[in-house]
Amino acid sequence: MFTDIYEGSVYRPPSEARSLILQATIGCSWNRCTFCTMFSEKQFRVKGIEGIASDVEKVLPYYRDIDRIFLSDGNALCIGTDELLSILELLYSRFEHLERVTIYGGPIDITRKTTDELMALRKAGLSLIYLGLESGSGEVLKRVKKGATPEMMMEASRKVKDAGIPLSVIFILGLGGVELSEVHARETARVLSEMDPEYAAALTLLLEGGSPIAEEVRSGRMTLPDPEGILKELRMIVEGSALTDCLFRANHASNYHPIGGRLPQDKDRILSQIDRAISSGSYKGDPFRRL
Questions:
Q1: CATH number of the domain that 196 lies in?
Q2: Rounded distance between C-alpha atoms, residue 281 and residue 266, angstroms
Q3: pLDDT in tens, 101-159
């Protein structure tokens, strides 16, 4: 059903599992990260208010009572502010029970918007922005061609917080390989603390066929941390964090050991859980991460 309104594979944050997903853009406005092939088959374009309005009318009879909508694809916040405001007005007017609308926002797209623009989007009903930090290390970000520096990440988060929009930050364990594992973990803890988001999630690097980073591993130019090394990275990040009130999760399918809690309140418990997993070897296997 609805194959005529969604182009390509569907990608969404785990927390949007019960949301209605509407494509505001096709593909990703950046689409150069070496670890990602999610949107490689798509030619990036903005769908436009007319296209979204048409999609809404098609799904409305089936999702009239939906209370959550996620606007995909990657970095849909790149859409001009006036058009995003029109999209939000449309969604809240057509879905009577709608309570929140969320979106992916890249650091480049966020920093291009003024705080006033972001505030206008928040007042119009934009409820949460997902931002892929990936790593707090400038060296790692450069190597994976993220197109942003740690300073840009922190500036983007400040703008979002100044506008009063909740922020969810994602980072990737193992992204620096064994070679940069310690600096990746240490700097991610530092930058994440500076960003101080309401939500944070750790994923573990998956090697997607055809991705440049998979070729780096295949050729021996990069070595992946083993499961224990990944958990040690996670421990360094949690231990080194100085968050004020953040709901933290590391329970994505890519992770070796499901962990969650609120930081800093649950820091000791989370660290103890990681230590037990490391000492006992009670983490899951590695069924689909290796080449």
A1: 3.20.20.70
A2: 22
A3: 999 999 999 999 999 999 999 999 999 999 999 999 999 999 999 999 999 999 999 99
Given a contact cutoff of 8 angstroms between Cβ atoms, the answer to whether 210 and 175 are in contact is no
The span from the CA of 256 to the CA of 286, in Å, is 8
Strand-strand pairing, 68-72 and 20-23: parallel
Question: Which tokens is 272 given?
Answer: 């103890």
Task: Name the 3-class secondary structure at 165.
Answer: coil
Structure tokens at 27: 């593909």
SS (H, E, C) 78-146: HCCHHHHHHHHHHHHHHCCCCCEEEEECCHHHHHHCCHHHHHHHHHCCEEEEEEEEECCCHHHHHHCCC
| Residue 28 falls inside a structural domain | yes
Please give the structure tokens belonging to residue 273. Answer: 């859980």
Indicate if the pLDDT at residue 285 is higher than 80. no
Over residues 78-87, the pLDDT tens digits come to 999 999 999 9
Task: Specify the length of the chain in residues.
Answer: 291
The set of residues, in sequence order, having a beta carbon less than 8 Å from that of 16 and lying 6+ positions away, is 68, 70, 102
Token pair, residue 45, equals 């374009």
What lies within 8 Å, CB to CB, of 31 at 6+ separation is 39, 40, 44, 74
Amino acid letter for position 211: S
Is residue 289 within 8 A of residue 253, CB to CB? The reply is no
Q: How many CB atoms lie within 10 A of CB 291?
A: 9
User: What is the reported pTM?
Assistant: 0.93
- Under DSSP, the state recorded for 69 is E
The whole domain housing 255 covers: 14-280
Domain count, the chain: 1
Structural domain contains residue 225? yes
